[in-house]
Structures are given as C-alpha cells and as structure tokens.
Amino acid sequence: MKNKPTIFSILIILLIAAFISDIFTGNAAISINEAWGAVFGSSGNDIIDEIILNYRLPKAITAVIAGAALSVSGLLMQTLFRNPLAGPDVLGVSAGAGLGVALLTMLSGTALYPFIQTMGSLGQVVAAITGAALILLLILAVSSRIKDSITILVLGMIFGYVASSLVTILQSFADPDSLKVFITWTFGSLGDVTLNKMPVLVIIVLSAILLTILLQKTLNSLLLGENYALSAGLNIKRARIIIITIAAVLTGTVTAFTGPIAFVGVVIPHFARAFFGTVNHKSILPATILMGSILMLICDIVSQTTLSNRTLPINAVTALFGAPMIVWIVLKKKKL
C-alpha cells in the first residue's frame, strides 16, 4: 500500500492523543493545566500530583503495554493456527492464565504462601504464564491432528471452560479474603499496576514483542503453509514452540497484572490487515501494536465515565467494543 507512511503517522498521532486524553480523564476534577503541570513538574497541589503521577500516568502506560501485548498475542495465534477468530480469550488462553493466578491466590494460608509472598508480583506472572502455556500446548497438540479451524476453535473454548470450571471449584474451597481478592481481579483493571510493579511488566512485554519482530519472516512463511515453510528451511516444530512461548508470556504477563481482558487480541489483527490490505507481518505487526494500544486507551477513557463516582471494569468495556467487531468479522468473511 502506497499510503503506509501516512497511515502509520495517523496511528502514532492517535496514540499520542489518546494517551494524553487518558491522563486528563478521570472522576477527580483536574484541569488540563493542572494535569500538564503535574506531569512536567508540579501542579502546586500535592493531591493532584499524587493522582496524576501515581495513578493516571501508570494506568495510561499500562493500557499501552496491555493493548499491544494482547494484540500481538492474538496475531501470533491467528498466524500459528490459521484461524481468524483465534485469540487469548477465545481459545481459552486467558482462562488458563486465570487458573494459574487462581491457584496462586487460593494458596493463601497454606504452608507455601510465605514463599509465594517473597516472589512478589513475579510469582503471579509466572503462575499466569504457566497456565496460559498449558492451554496453548493442549491446543497445539489438537491442531497437529485436526486441521479444521472450527473444530480447533471449539476445542479451545472447551479447554477454556474446563479451566474456568477448575477456578470455580477452587473458589468454593477458598477463604473469604482470598476469594474477594480473586473476584476483584477478574473484573480487570489497568489501575492496579504501581510504579514499583511497572518495570516487570514493561521489560517482559517489550522483550517478547522484540522477539516477535525478529520472527516476522518466520510468521510470513507459516502463512504460506507448512510445505512452503519446510521448503524454505524453517524448523516448524521449533517455530511453533517459540511462538507459543511468546504468546503465553504476553498473555500471561498482562493477565497477571490487569486481570482477564477480552476481545482485544482477536479483533485488532483484523483491523490491521484491513487498513493495510496485506497479511505481511512487516506491516501488520507494527500496526497491530499501535492499534491495540489505541483501543485499550480508548476503552480506559470510556471506563472513566462518571457513574456514581465509580470506574467501569475494563473487561466489560472491551467486551462492548469487541463483541460487535467480531460479529462484523464473521459477517464479512461469511465463513471461517
């Protein structure tokens, strides 16, 4: 597409505008001048500085990171399984990550809990990545025997339901305090990532995205079919393991920090392909990163809508945006 530089420029401008708008948006009445002053020095009000620097700014950064990570994870899954509706939540990967976090949370009060506490936020990340990887490996095992995309999609959903059922069983045995913490986590929130936790999230996600960028040629080869990839000298088995690992790390890390966030990973790769009219990952991968971040920022802005001084769960907002988009995708393709 000849207009690629123009479209990328527009996306970057939209990302910056959405990021600034997200910082300026919230239930607390803060003027643009006060918010601007807090970011670049001091607003003259300690409370405003606290709100901007320790809540809104980290939340906006988290939205950018989470949107990019989930979108790239969805792109990897759609390429690997060659299924247009593959994504972290649809294939049950997010549910697997949730199961890992549930197991960790429900261990509160057991002999293992003191050790888990010493790991801090990293323990939750490891648990979520492990759960996500388990579901992905199950789906990969199935896809090696069954080529029908619909069947793989249904089986992925079943794996997700099984993981959710195990979580429900764990909840029935959990103590009230652990149960409350976990249920609150399932609502999804971008505001729980503090500045102390931010480096872990940023380093892990950016490292995984950088590895994905280095895999663009491999991903393009897989799109042309396994026979072509083999003839080009690609080690299919190793490529699958690497892609699954990256997708699990991206999904698991974001889910651990923000809770389950639906639909973003499914719909954004489609919009990237539609905007650029190509499936070449050299174009759609950076577009996916930008669009995912923009959508997450917009959803976060919408979640700040004042309803009795409450913030809407981010998972509910992304579902309201994402569900109609999936219907549009299905109607447009007419078949999967």
Characterization of the model:
This protein is mostly helical and 336 residues long. The protein is built from 15 helices and no strands. It has helices spanning 4-24, 32-39, 46-81, 93-106, 113-119, 121-143, 149-173, 176-186, 198-214, 216-223, 226-231, 236-258, 264-276, 281-303, 314-333.
Task: Output the CATH class name.
Answer: Mainly Alpha
**Whole-number count of domains:** 1
Quaternary organization: single chain
Assign the CATH architecture: Orthogonal Bundle
Measured distance between first and last alpha carbons: 25 Å
Write down the Rg. 20 Å
Question: SSE order, as H and E?
Answer: HHHHHHHHHHHHHHH
Envelope shape:
globular
Mean pLDDT: 83
- Binned, the helix content reads over 70%
- Briefly note the CATH topology name: ABC transporter involved in vitamin B12 uptake, BtuC
Strand percent estimate: under 5%
Q: Helical region count?
A: 15
